[in-house]
Amino acid sequence: MSDCIFCKIAAGEMASEMVYQDERVVAFKDIRPVAPVHILIIPRKHIPDLTAITEEDAGLIGHLHLVAVKIARELGLADRGFRLVNNCKQEGGQVIYHLHYHLLGGRQLKNIC
Ligand code: 5GP
Ligand code: ZN
What we know:
Bound molecules: guanosine-5'-monophosphate, zinc ion
Shape: globular
Number of helices: 3
Radius of gyration: 14 Å
CATH topology: HIT family, subunit A
Largest sheet: 5 strands, antiparallel
Structural class: alpha+beta
CATH architecture: 2-Layer Sandwich
Strand order of the largest sheet: 1-2-3-5-4
Number of strands: 5
Strand content: 15-25%
């Protein structure tokens, strides 16, 4: 998707503070962090939101979760705990329509549900 900022970040066409990348997934620091650790983890593949995933993406989504845990462990959050969040569509608070998960941690997070 040529007009998608997260596609551009994944392709290295737009600057970001990258913390992880492989052939399927990239992770970079959120530009407006709400916690000491606030990283966005995205598939390179342009998937607009969580409802657009198919059976074909099951391995990709599983891999993304493994990457999230790997990053959390490297940042010392695996024992303390962290939150992995997907905001889906309007009422879920989604602003950027390229599937992404927020990895949040480094402080006590309040329960939201
Ligand atoms: P959403 O509300 O869609 O779940 O979250 C989008 C997130 O992307 C927000 O937390 C916002 O701060 C972040 N964001 C928006 N534009 C950029 C950008 O250009 N670079 C980075 N690193 N983060 C961005
Ligand atoms: Zn995209």
